[in-house]
């Protein structure tokens, strides 16, 4: 069953896309909730005319998404997690934690458009944010252990500082 989407449906498509769905999903969910209409010939012609008229508006939306993507590409942040003895973290870092960090930095990004792949180790990772159907941004973040890096670097810093104070005397 072909459906013309009237709004973005995460995991299916974007507004004004023509998508193939199972008949039950179209009849029982998309059409009654107003998220889509049946893609008849007349509906397709109306969509084509509307897209021609809205080409300028769509370019503006894409440019805004690109501007946000450029800002996101410059952002880096750290997520702390409990670390096991073998160096891995307990559980994993997911898109919810990335969305919370981005919100703290002033970006209002829906967690459902963030893709994070298997972050189960300490180190640097990348999350992909799908802002528009043609615009994605890569956000770099670091996963650090709770208290472990500070405990490991603190004795080294104290050892380096101690000889410096002895030579000063």
Any overview of this molecule?
The chain is of the alpha+beta class and 169 residues long. The chain has two domains: 2-53, 3-Layer(aba) Sandwich (Ribosomal Protein L9, domain 1), CATH 3.40.5; 66-168, Ribosomal Protein L9, domain 2 (Roll). The protein is 42% helix and 29% strand. The chain is built from five helices and nine strands. The longest helix is centred in the C-terminal third of the chain and has 21 residues, at 148-168.
CA radius of gyration: 24 Å
- Name the quaternary structure: single chain
Strand content: 25-35%
Q: Looking at the structure, what is the overall shape?
A: elongated
Mind sketching the topology for me?
Elements: E1 2-5, E2 18-20, H1 23-30, E3 36-38, H2 41-53, H3 55-73, E4 76-81, E5 88-93, H4 95-104, E6 114-116, E7 119-121, E8 123-132, E9 135-145, H5 148-168
Parallel strand pairs: 4-9
Antiparallel strand pairs: 1-2, 1-3, 5-7, 6-8, 8-9
Give a brief outline of the structure:
The chain is an alpha+beta fold and 169 residues long.
Keywords:
Ribosomal Protein L9, domain 1, 169 residues, alpha+beta, Ribosomal Protein L9, domain 2, 4-stranded mixed β-sheet, disordered C terminus, elongated, 2 domains
